[in-house]
Amino acid sequence: MTVLPSLAPRPTFRGISLIPVNEGLWRVIASSGSVLGHIERCADGDGDRYAARRLTATTRTLDLGSFCRIDDAADCFR
């Protein structure tokens, strides 16, 4: 099975892992294994943006913002 480069797991950094869910969507996992939220890539006129959403309940999320870099979006979860 071939893994697309954008779906390859990103390395763990600052105690957070980004696990690809599908093309342009990552699950944010704490070092304890708990799911913290998601980061979604969105294309706009200025290029790709990364929207961070924190999981607050089983079916609820809180928008944390939109960022130019995925690393900046991931920093919201620290």
**Strand adjacency order, main sheet:** 1-2-3-4-5
Helix proportion range: under 10%
- Report how far the terminal alpha carbons are from each other: 33 Å
Q: Which structural class do you get from the secondary structure elements?
A: mainly beta
The proportion of residues in beta strands is over 45%
Outline the biggest β-sheet: 5 strands, antiparallel
Mean pLDDT, nearest integer? 85
Report low-confidence residues grouped into runs of 5 or more: none
Overall spatial form: globular
Structure description:
It is a single chain. The chain is mainly beta. It has one domain (19-75). Helix content is 8%, strand content 50%. The protein has one helix at 70-75, and strands spanning 16-22, 25-30, 35-44, 47-55, 61-67. Strands 1-2-3-4-5 form a five-stranded antiparallel beta sheet. 14% of the residues are buried.
How are the SSEs placed, and which strands pair?
Elements (H helix, E strand, L loop, with lengths): L15 E7 L2 E6 L4 E10 L2 E9 L5 E7 L2 H6 L3
Antiparallel strand pairs: 1-2, 2-3, 3-4, 4-5
Give keywords.
1 helix; mainly beta; 5-stranded antiparallel beta sheet; 78 residues
Concise account of the structure shown:
The protein is mostly beta strands.
